[in-house]
Amino acid sequence: MTDFPIVGLDTPVLEAARLLADQDLPGLIVVDADGLPFTILPGTQVLRLAVPGYCQDDPALARVVDEAHADLFLRAIDGRTVREAMPKRQRELPVTDLDATVLELAALMARTHSPLVAIVAGGRLHGAVTLQALLDRVVQA
User: Which residues form the CBS domain (predicted)?
Assistant: First the structure.
């Protein structure tokens, strides 16, 4: 488990994207007003908000955009919030307690398709376990 950056529902998506890039994170923990996990926002969901819908629907259309303009697609999320980047359907929240085993963490990540699990105990967020940290530990064993 490690300390992990958090964002709120009203955090600008561009700020969240910078946090993901600057700290090389697989996703973010989005907290509610009480500071407890509301959802896990994988980096792919941030991209989903920024990439034009027509490029997601037909990848061939993404190829016709020249590289100079393609590099600017992230500007589309300027002024939007994390709340807008969240998936429409909420899945099981990947949250567990301090006593979770490596296998429990792996099963939770696999079941929820989440690259990280938030650790909550005593009514507060203690940190997170990332997929990378989990795999590092399993491979070393």
Answer: 2-35, 91-138
- Separation between Cα atoms, residue 113 and residue 41, nearest integer Å: 11
Distance between CA atoms of residues 73 and 66, nearest Å: 11
Q: Where are the domains of the chain?
A: 6-140
Q: Which CATH number describes the domain made up of 6-140?
A: 3.10.580.10
Span 71-111, pLDDT tens digits: 777 777 788 888 887 777 777 899 999 999 999 999 999 99
